[in-house]
Amino acid sequence: MAIGSEVTGTPELDADALRKFEAALRGEVLRAGHPGYDPARALYNAMIDRHPALIVRCRESSDVLRALEFARSHHLLVAVRGGGHNVAGKALCDDGMVIDLSGMKRIQVDPAARTARAEAGLTWGEFDRETQEHGLATTGGFISTTGIAGLTLGGGLGWLMRKHGLACDNLRSVEIVTADGQVRTADATENPDLFWAVRGGGGNFGIVTSFEYRLHPVGQMLAGVVFFPLEQAEAALRFYRDLMTTAPDEVMAYAVFLTSPEGARMLAIPVCYVGPLESAEQILRPLRSHASVAADLVRPMTYREIQSMFDAGFPSGRLNYWKSSFLRELSDEGIATLVAHFTAVPSGFSAVAIEPFGGVVARVGREETAFAHRHARYSLVIVSMWTDPAESAANIRWTREFWNAMQPFFSEAVYVNYLDTDDADRVQAAYDPRTYRRLQLVKERYDPGNFFRVNQNIGPAL
Questions:
Q1: 74, 150, 401, 413: which one has the fewest Cβ atoms less than 10 Å from its Cβ?
Q2: Residues 204-220: what's their mean pLDDT?
């Protein structure tokens, strides 16, 4: 059976109550046997195979309220689905109800105020399409098919974070439906404890139906990928480490181990300069002129082009298994371990990504948001992907052995959005102890019964 699949039988629901519920919705309800049911329960990660009793495809906040009321009155477990993807499959549950927000895609951009209010079903690609019409953007992930909701609620890493902060740092307010059926606004003055919690605490505190973001002028940038052969990866990573130690906020550069379409294992440095092209040329010249560069694909790009550079490498429907932690530093020994283990990667679809912090991220107060790991140096995520279920054991084993080998170089901390299905015991590591305790107190206030528990769960205070 696939990871996360625990089908125990669909609950019996009162037919009359179900008809009344469906009639009151603007959206639709899908059950097993409906032609749209299987497509609607398909997730990004094909390792996840769950069968909810009901999938409620909401069109507006009133649908969310009615779905929540029906689930509570019929004692249904609830999962909440946004517009993107999550490796752990928390958007789906067996036997209960999925409140599916993926059809809620309205967005209003105020170019004068440099703000956008966006519904929870949007992906970052859809969000960027509207904001870039006005030459504006906000931090939103690494690929365009990521959903705005899950990424923001977990903190929100992305291309613009060193210059403009995390996605959650650019959040001005949310509309959220809490477990008691109330629609609340949470911002700096109204329900400020709830606003603090949703900026890094995930989906533990209610169903966020819309987000208001601060936007920034973002025009054409110098960006792209510089490739190095794997045999030169150790030297290239040492150069990368030195580059990011002194880089200005405008520079965002990842380091990614991957396999080329021709089957060559390589180190890629995806990079962008969030600023004028003339400044970028000078700053990025040392990277592009490094002696061991195999290919230089850096050029002027729009932000939307930058956001979609790696979309093809992360399609929906592959089998996925991830492991992640923060690196204390990028030491020579750690670099050698990375290269040695990637040499044995069993799947050409797998990748290992190093994401640098610093810049504005580190200058936001540690207690201003629930994302507390402000002074992390790097995040490392092993993204294991393959297509043949018969190869699952080998790929999972490689991922775990790789992650175990990297333990001497990790801190205990982890980015909550990278936790996989078997990481429930690591949720506390996504927060420092003081932050975690404060999140428990907010959970106690707004969801004392832990109704919203199909997530990277934080239980109420005892």
A1: 401
A2: 98
